[in-house]
Design a protein that fits this description.
Maltoporin, Chain A; 4 helices; mainly beta; five-stranded mixed sheet; 754 residues
């Protein structure tokens, strides 16, 4: 891989930083809050990246996806199977299932409230104070996770009248407007109103069969925040969010080969149903699709957040209450073609309530301690109808097929309760040594109610109502311990051990009682050693960390014989992964107005074990440990440069960002699932004059195209396989990244205190 360009940029940054400029600026302090108190991130013995609002506002970054690569080892891929969904991986551990019953490996928290599903994790970044990426599991953060968390903190009401308005237009008919209005109400009570609107943006993806644009979105978000402060003893902040999205289900492209049933039996269609080559879609273009089914998708969400802080009995208390209620409906053309082969209608509802209370205090001057309790209650239900695929299986001569007009129905519901108690202590051993220890005990109870495959033909329904009811309890004790050494006033080293987990559950796509059995919890253990340092008068910051992680009981999907003798698709704990790597973050301000940020990650990820049944020789095991775990690129690099200087009556700014990812997999058992190494450039120029800022920008300037999610649907994803030892593949499809986006942005921030 060619690293010469970013290496040269990095070398120039370091040379500039020691060039002895007369009046350089300082980087200043960055504060982290994931320990439920304000801590200087440079003196916090954890791997934490803090991204401030000003850093993202130097360019056009509007979604959580845009912080990818700014955080070492972070990958964020869009998901078309759920509204504003994101497959997020951190340090080679992630998850990409759209199921509401499968907890994400990387937690996303908004103002301290956990987002419990993969839906709506692609947050809009318009009203936030900072983003924290905690790059390892720990015992202090809301819902347990396997590899860390991304914490988004929105701005508080300022108590003064001020307005922040942004509007942008760009290619592909994309338009965005957002506004944040702060206002006083009475003494000690203030408010904030924030609104966001996005429309269009899908003209880059054309449907040649339906003559329509794909990937468009009409999205609105309104948020009201009230803040009440009573002297220095009590503060309460309440936020209500209402969001809605009326969009098209993002297009997928057909890359089925002659080995896929779609390619072999649907030959009398206007457009071909076979790919033009390896990873090359049927229409020989990454920006054309011929899908013929409805692409309607709607999402409605209402969210409540209440954060209360107060002092009592010599202790500081933080209580965070969260309520989330989401409804979504979508039509999906999963055959990615102009054939009536496999179409799906799906409706889902998800409800969540969470409550966290943390108490913090100190004993004498050497010991700081904290303890708390966390409760999470979630419930979801899903109803799905599948069209055409049953009759297509029958047309292919498979005994499992059904008559034309047959519709398969699936429905699932799950209730889940989690109760966690945690404690953490930090002991000052001397002027240089500090040790800390944390524990977290969690119990998760899940109740599963599932109605597997039912076939509807006209008014007839078979089989009659057959329910699978299951209960699963997971219990885990997590430990977190570290020790840090203060080298001098500008550097520290630390060693840390941490554990993480996500609870077991059930497969909402189960076809039988066996497939409906629960799978167990996934667990991770991470050890790391790190250095945090400031140099040259706080103009250069260098943080380095080496880590090693063991991921046990990893859940994978595979095919196996069940008691009835048929082959079904199962979810179970069949794999183990070992990951090691190192990360470097460098921030520098060598000149007045010049800010440089570099992030680099190198990792090695391997399956230690991946055992699945041998379908050809029952009783034997196949070890797939030679495969590559998903979303674990060996190298990823970010180099960003922001330079601002006075020009005429205002201030001129220029931004350039370089991103690099080496090869990684999205579907380990499929060669087509590999994402080839890619690089991208983002640029922007701006001019600030009085209360206005004007910006011209281009993201992905070179229009780099790469796959994001490759998926293969086999018969066992639809129906069991009877009387055969080979599971036929039906469809192979993929999603691609967003292309180059050029546009103009105007920001208006009037000052009412003049």
């Amino acid at each position: 891989m060619n690293l010469r360009i970013p290496a040269a940029i990095l070398l120039a940054c370091i040379c500039l930083s020691v060039s002895g400029q007369e009046s350089p600026e300082e980087l200043g302090d960055a504060t982290t809050h994931f320990l439920k108190e304000d801590r200087d991130v440079q003196w916090t013995p954890h791997s934490v990246t803090v991204i401030k609002r000003d850093e993202l506002e130097s360019s056009f970054k509007r979604d959580l996806e845009d912080i990818e690569s700014i955080v070492p080892g972070l990958i964020i891929d869009r998901m078309n199977t759920t509204p504003r969904g994101a497959a997020i991986a951190l340090r080679g551990i992630g998850s990409s299932g759209a199921s509401k019953g499968f907890d994400p490996a990387v937690a996303v928290n908004i103002d301290g409230v956990y987002v419990g599903t993969h839906t709506n994790r692609l947050q809009v970044l318009f009203d936030f104070e900072q983003i924290e990426a905690v790059r390892s599991p720990h015992t202090f953060e809301n819902n347990p996770n396997l590899s860390g968390s991304i914490n988004i903190e929105r701005t508080k009401p300022t108590g003064e009248l001020d307005v922040d308005v942004r509007a942008s237009v760009g290619i592909d008919d994309r338009r965005e407007v957002d506004a944040v209005i702060n206002f006083p109400i009475i003494d000690a009570l203030s408010g904030k109103l924030a609104v966001f609107w996005k429309d269009g943006g899908g003209e880059y993806m054309k449907n040649v069969y339906q003559s329509r644009d794909e990937n468009t979105e009409d999205y609105q978000l309104a948020s009201l925040t009230l803040n009440w402060q009573f002297q220095d003893l009590f503060e309460a902040t309440y936020t209500f969010d209402s969001e809605s999205s009326d969009q098209t289900t993002p297009a997928i492209l057909n890359i089925s080969s002659p080995a896929d049933l779609l390619c072999s039996i649907t030959t009398n269609t206007p457009f071909p149903n076979c790919r033009r080559g390896f990873q090359n879609p049927e229409l020989d273009s990454l920006r054309l699709t011929a899908q013929n089914f409805s692409n309607d998708r709607k999402y409605e969400g209402e969210h409540h957040t209440l954060r209360v802080t107060f002092d009592a009995f010599g202790h500081d208390f933080v209580a965070i209450t969260g309520v989330r209620d989401n409804d979504e409906s979508m039509d999906m053309d999963l055959d990615a073609s102009n054939s009536d082969f496999y179409h799906v209608e799906q409706n889902q509802n998800y409800e969540q309530f969470s409550q966290e209370i943390t108490m913090r205090g100190e004993w004498q001057e050497n010991l700081d301690y904290a303890a708390g309790i966390y409760y999470l209650d979630t419930a979801y239900n899903i109803y799905q109808r599948e069209f055409h695929i049953l009759s297509e299986l029958g047309n292919a001569g498979f005994s499992e097929g059904r008559a034309p007009g047959s519709i398969q129905e699936l429905s699932s519901a799950q209730d889940s309760e989690m109760l966690s108690v945690f404690a953490h202590a930090e002991y000052i051993l001397s002027d240089r040594w500090i040790a800390d220890l944390g524990i977290r005990w969690s119990e998760v109870d899940r109740n599963f109610n599932h109605i597997p495959s039912r076939i509807r033909l006209g008014d007839a329904l078979s089989p009659l109502r057959t329910q699978l009811i299951g209960d699963e309890t997971s219990k885990e004790l997590l430990r977190n311990a570290g020790i840090s050494y203060k080298v001098d006033e500008e550097a520290m080293v630390y060693i840390r051990y941490s554990e993480g987990f996500i609870p077991g559950g059930f497969d909402e796509n189960a076809m039988s009682a066996v497939a409906g059995n629960s799978y167990g919890s996934e667990t991770s253990r991470t050890g790391e050693i790190g250095l945090k340092s400031d140099w040259w008068g706080d103009r250069l910051r260098v943080n380095v960390v080496y880590y090693k992680t063991e991921l046990d009981n990893k859940v994978e999907r595979f095919d196996a014989y069940v008691d009835s003798g048929v082959i079904e698709s199962l979810l179970d704990n069949v794999a183990e992964v070992e990951i090691s790597g190192w990360e470097v973050e460098i921030k520098a301000m060598p000149l007045e107005g010049l800010y440089i940020h570099t992030a680099y990650s190198h990792l090695n990820s391997d399956y230690n074990q991946y055992n699945i049944p041998n379908l050809v020789t029952p009783g034997e095991i196949i070890n797939l440990a030679n495969l590559t775990p998903p979303r674990a690129p060996k190298d990823n690099l970010f180099v960003g440069l922001d330079y601002q200087f006075p020009l005429g009556p205002g201030r001129f700014g220029v931004y350039g960002g370089y991103r690099l990812f080496s090869d990684y997999q999205t579907f380990p058992t499929l060669p087509e699932g590999e994402v080839k190494n890619w690089t991208a450039w983002d640029v922007a120029i701006s001019y600030e004059w009085r209360d206005f800022l004007f910006r011209i920008f281009s993201n992905n300037v070179k229009n780099k195209e790469y796959t994001q999610n490759v998926n293969q649907i086999t018969q066992t994803n639809i129906l069991p396989v009877e009387g055969r030892k080979v599971v036929p593949s039906l469809i192979t499809s993929t999603e691609y990244n967003q292309p180059r986006y050029n546009g103009l942005e105007i920001i208006y921030r009037p000052s009412f205190q003049k």
